[in-house]
Design brief:
- There is one protein chain.
- The chain is an alpha+beta fold.
- The protein is built from ten helices and four strands.
- The two termini are about 60 Å apart.
Length: about 475
């Protein structure tokens, strides 16, 4: 019969123990939210109808790709620039790399530690202490190579820790994806805000020019006795108000530029910047017929689920701590009492040692096991909360989308009516049928409504960008 050497036996053990862990079986928890969000939107009936139409048209609705959702090539190029230079994304990538290497540490603990060692000693005993009554010199030399230390993972403690490390790494990878997605949406929102603020600046500048012309006309009328001093003063106050609005508009544009430079991590080239709202291609609409299951693919929700899986694995490691831990040492080498004979025939040596420890009572092990169970329950609650948060954010964004078009149409009609009111008030003043106060009031109303149209239009598309990010779109 062929003799099984210690090293051969050690080589068989990984096959015998593969896949054994004491971790509880992971089952994805039921999402604590409704299957769809149509009942939570403002126009619930319309949204439900849209969802039904989408479901009938295709077996599974999916989000548009980023290039489809954002058709403006300048914006896509700017997003690529930000992804290459943004420091938040770089930090997230480095955190992911660190988590990956920590996982490798845990994974490699399953493998034996192989090393080599050399030892030599020379000892001289005088005749007074020597057993032979004569002075004697002892020598000993050896060289060994083999398994220095190896824990046999019979009950899955190391394997569970390895699985926990893997889930921690995957959670960090999802956190990086969340930063990636957030950066895309922040760049798009800032780019749209710049286009909107450029329109506001143009409106403020044109209003200032108009107010200065009115003041010049009023000053001429007053000089020939056709206008009152109070009308001239009121016209002057409107000039200063318009000048203040123009200055604030320039400030907003400058701050938008600064934000884009910050998000991009580098000064943004001029050709990538919008030149007012009419110069851009706006984001495309998103189907409301998506199931709430799409939220399970959101990076923050997936990161929370990986944390939950890691908690399950840690429970397995804690359970394995109640069972024996067995470790092996196995060395092959050569030994001699003379350095010259270290590698001669007959000098082969080997060592095979095993050690086992069995916990009988350790209150710390019991407490640690209970702590991992509490950790699992805590992470489960956090996972469910992340889903509920995602659902609420989606419902809020959909509520905006189902009302914003109506608001925008009303404000545009209001702006048209305000412009006509201002025109009529100016005609009545010119013909002496009304005071200049009516002109100022109509002018203030027109300016405010025009600002409202710009702000509401931005709100519509900024919310659309936010909804796209909330649903987990944008790629990785």
């Amino acid at each position: 019969m062929k003799r099984i050497t210690p090293l051969a036996l050690a080589g068989l053990l990984p096959i015998l123990m593969a896949g054994c862990t004491l971790a509880p079986k992971y089952v994805r928890p039921e999402a604590p939210v409704p299957a769809d969000w149509s009942a939570h939107a403002v126009n619930a009936d319309d949204l439900a109808a849209t969802a039904a139409d989408t479901a009938a048209a295709a077996p599974k609705a999916v989000l548009l790709s980023l290039a489809e959702f954002l058709p403006d090539e300048r914006l896509l190029e700017l997003i690529d620039l930000a992804l290459a230079n943004n420091r938040d994304l770089q930090i997230a990538a480095l955190n992911m790399e660190r988590a990956r290497e920590l996982y490798h540490v845990r994974r490699n603990e399953l493998l034996p530690s192989v090393g080599a060692a050399a030892y030599g000693s020379r000892q001289h005993d005088p005749a007074e202490v020597s057993s032979s009554g004569a002075a004697v010199t002892y020598e000993y030399y050896n060289v060994d190579v083999g398994i220095i230390s190896w824990e046999l993972d019979l009950f899955g403690r190391v394997r569970s820790l390895k699985n926990a490390g893997l889930e921690q790494y995957l959670s960090t990878a999802e956190a990086r994806r969340a930063v990636h997605l957030s950066l895309q949406s922040r760049v798009a929102a800032a780019w749209l805000a710049l286009a909107s603020d450029q329109d506001f600046r143009a409106l403020a500048d044109s209003t200032l020019v108009s107010q200065e012309a009115d003041y010049t006309m009023m000053a001429r009328r007053s000089a020939v006795g056709l206008g009152s001093e109070i009308d001239l003063t009121r016209a002057k106050s409107r000039v200063e108000a318009a000048r203040d609005a123009a200055a604030r508009a320039r400030l907003s544009v400058a701050q938008d530029r600064n934000l884009l430079d910050f998000l991009a991590g580098t000064p943004v080239p001029e050709h990538l910047l919008p030149q007012g709202w009419d110069s851009i291609q706006v984001p495309r609409e998103i189907s409301a017929g998506l199931s709430s299951e799409v939220l399970l693919s959101r990076p923050d929700v997936m990161a929370a689920e990986h944390q939950l899986r890691a908690a399950y694995a840690n429970m397995g490691a804690a359970r394995a701590a109640f069972f024996p831990r067995i470790s092996l040492t196995s060395l092959l080498g050569t030994a001699s009492n003379a350095l010259s004979g270290l590698f001669t025939a007959g000098s082969k040596s080997w060592t095979f040692a095993g050690a086992a420890t069995m916990p009988i009572f350790d209150a710390r092990t019991i407490a640690a096991s209970k702590a991992t169970t509490a950790d699992r329950d805590l992470v489960l609650a956090q996972y469910e909360k992340s889903i509920q948060t995602a659902f609420r954010e989606t419902c809020d964004a959909l509520a905006v989308q189902t009302t914003i078009d109506e608001r925008l149409a009303a404000q545009q009609a209001w702006a048209t009516a305000a412009a006509e009111t201002y025109r009529l008030a100016l005609r009545r003043y010119d013909t002496g049928l009304d005071s200049y106060l009516s002109v100022l009031d109509a002018q203030r109303s027109l300016f405010a409504v025009q600002q409202g149209v710009i702000a509401t239009r931005l709100s519509k598309y900024a919310n659309l960008v936010n909804l796209y990010a909330i649903l987990g779109g944008g790629g990785a």
